[in-house]
Amino acid sequence: MSFPVSYLTRAWLGSKISTTLLPSTIRPLSAHIKLTENCQARCISCDYWKTRWQDKISTPRAIDLINELIAADVRTLRLTGGEPLLRKDLFLILEKANASRFKHIILQTNGLLIKKLHQELNDSSISHLSVSMDGVKETNDRIRGIRGYFDLAMAGIQLLRGKSVAISVTLNRMSADELGLLAAMARDVGASVEYNILSRSLYFLENADLDSMWPQPADVPKIARFMREGLKRPAYEVDYMTRYYNREELAEPPCVLGYLQLFVLSNGDVMTGCYSLKPVGNILRDKLADVLASEAYRRQCVSMIRRECPGCTCGVESSLAMKYAGSSAFFHLKRLTGSGNRRNGGPFDGPSDRAHTPSLVRIRTSHDLASQSQKDAVDK
Ligand SMILES: C[S@@+](CC[C@H](N)C(=O)[O-])C[C@H]1O[C@@H](n2cnc3c(N)ncnc32)[C@H](O)[C@@H]1O
Ligand code: SF4
Ligand code: SF4
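A: This is the predicted complex of the input protein with iron/sulfur cluster.
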């Protein structure tokens, strides 16, 4: 299957020159599906675990959805959440749907269940795992609120066979000194490293304590060095991260995510690759093809290009690549959307999910880590 260069070219030209050049029909390259938004971790940076969510997408609807995505020529399926491995029918859904027709299936996971489910994972059509770890050992465990998390996830990774694995680190102040060591430990288990930039205003981050994780001015150069030398990220990405964390003014790129990815939430809502704007349909009511072909979908993608949005850093790597990388943007986008080789620096499945509009920054009292209840790592 060839990569849709003309589609991307139009998205690129439309974002740079005039919205009249944008593709007239939307063909997202990747789909990020949240079959559950429940979670058993307790991350400082994320609120998901604080709510008991209803999983509204039934097994048969999930199977149909996956087949609809394939029919829509979506190349990459990203299973995220919440914690996707808490969905007990996940492997059944992949097996019953024609999931092996995706070019890549990426599981975005906290890693707590990999060890327990490694056989099912090894036997599944999942090709990539992005395992979230925000520091080394105790630092990670404090950030993610589970004692033993790091060791459990690492043990699980080592049981995987034939999978491409990345450790997904959300760049933060508490592990700014450990990033090189984290990358070395990742290498030792055959994993690469990808990064997220802390988001601050999405629906699942409203009560998260981001202050305790926000890099201080002295941390930012350390993180920048890691991005530059450890991850070999382009200068414009490093510069963006630096300005964002230093709360400096940013030249926000047009947001191309509407053209690249679609999201489906656990209540069935279809989002145009953006967690901040309104849903444009619901798969419990609508066929995916109808939602994708709708004028509401197209219009919202155009308004994303114009940045008629609260702003976030979700998938900002893709928008920066479109803005700065010229023709090499397509190479970057292949990697970012999972259409090329291994991602190295990627969109928070949300993708991606971060706001930098100063008025949206939540200022909270510093999180008391000592009182953060730490559950034992339960391999459930
Ligand atoms: C919301 S989680 C869902 C999937 C899974 N539970 C996990 O942790 O990988 C998706 C990604 O968002 C990252 N994340 C959590 N809080 C974040 C924040 N405030 N800003 C940016 N990324 C964040 C997680 O570390 C993870 O890599
Ligand atoms: S980041 Fe992932 S593991 Fe952590 S609370 Fe959120 S959904 Fe759960
Ligand atoms: S809120 Fe984020 S994802 Fe949504 S349009 Fe704005 S920059 Fe893009």
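Residues 255, 257, 274, 276-277, 304, 309-312, 314 surround iron/sulfur cluster (ligand 3) (CB under 6 Å). The first helix runs from residue 5 to 16.
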